[in-house]
Design goal:
The chain is an alpha+beta fold. The chain is built from five helices and 18 strands.
Length: about 290
């Protein structure tokens, strides 16, 4: 077993290797390249967005256009959600600049989006109606970071008159549970499955891990020491087993602490067996997405 190994990102709030073709929005300059992001709590369609060079409404897949280094702001009528660095995946966690599903701003944003969904079923995507944009046009004073957000009469009136089948604000637990399920799915699809990460720590060098789409993969030390792994997502963590089925094995659980670009800082806990004796530990690592 090799010390201080890695388990990647458990919550999706920033960049991944995914760059896909976009739908709506304006393109004022093709140099540098126009990139595509997705706004997700389920895909959020027909929400207004603006960056320094692009603006418009997200398409049916929640996609928007941006260029590297820009900031994106999403809005419903006159209600601006918090701005954040534009990237290939943006979620309410990104906008709130947090990793916590218990954050007030995260809760307020998810409840608002799901309450305004036209058909009231966030599991098949979220669509903001033109009626909601029109009704909220003069609601620039609505503050999605406020602890009194859900009792704001403007918010109550907007939901009741938005054109959604939902006429009252969605419960906190319902909204957060849905967001958690979305994050779990997106984590697998965009950040983990099929990707390779290199590992940086105080006593680890030339170490990388590959996550195959079928829940297997390998952990490589140096050039020729390759260990089989199995991995799965549980809640907001990833469980990673090195040398599964062997007498000596290691189980890792990683959770993110910060994200910057393609670097993810994680804390880990580990338990297992080495040379017949139980072992355990904890620490931190930096994960670096390898763009192949």
């Amino acid at each position: 077993m090799k010390k201080n190994q890695f388990m990647p990102l458990a919550v999706v709030l920033a960049s991944s290797a995914l760059l896909v073709a976009c739908g709506s929005g304006s393109d004022s300059d093709d140099t540098p390249a126009t990139l595509t992001g997705k706004f997700l709590d389920s895909a959020v369609a027909n929400i207004a967005y603006r960056t320094e060079t692009h603006s418009g409404f997200t398409n049916a897949n929640g996609e928007f256009n941006y260029k590297a280094g820009e900031t994106v702001t999403f809005s419903i009528g006159g209600i601006d959600l918090p701005s954040a660095a534009a990237s290939s995946i943006v979620t309410p966690l990104t906008l709130a600049d947090t990793l916590s599903l218990e954050n007030v701003t995260v809760s307020n944003i998810t409840r608002l989006l799901q309450s305004l969904d036209v058909d009231g079923d966030a599991s098949n995507g979220i669509t903001i109606s033109d009626t909601a944009h029109t009704y909220a046009q003069d609601m620039n004073a609505v503050d999605v970071t406020s602890i009194t957000f859900s009792s704001d009469q403007n918010v109550t009136n907007l939901i009741a008159n938005s054109g959604s089948t939902t006429t009252e604000i969605v419960a906190t637990g319902t909204a957060i549970n849905h967001l958690a399920a979305t994050l779990n799915s997106v984590l697998t699809e965009y950040l983990i499955s099929g990707n390779t990460y290199s590992i940086t720590s105080d006593n680890t060098s030339s170490t990388s891990v590959y996550f195959a789409a079928n829940g297997t993969g390998n952990l490589t030390f140096g050039q020729d020491d390759v260990q089989d792994i199995t991995w799965s997502i549980s809640g907001n963590s990833i469980t990673f087993t090195e040398s599964p089925g062997n007498a000596d094995y290691w189980n890792w659980v990683y959770t993110p602490t910060s994200i910057s670009g393609n670097q993810i800082e994680v804390s880990f806990s580990v338990s297992g067996v080495e040379d017949g004796a139980p072992v355990s530990g904890s620490g931190t690592l930096t994960l670096n997405l390898v763009l192949l």
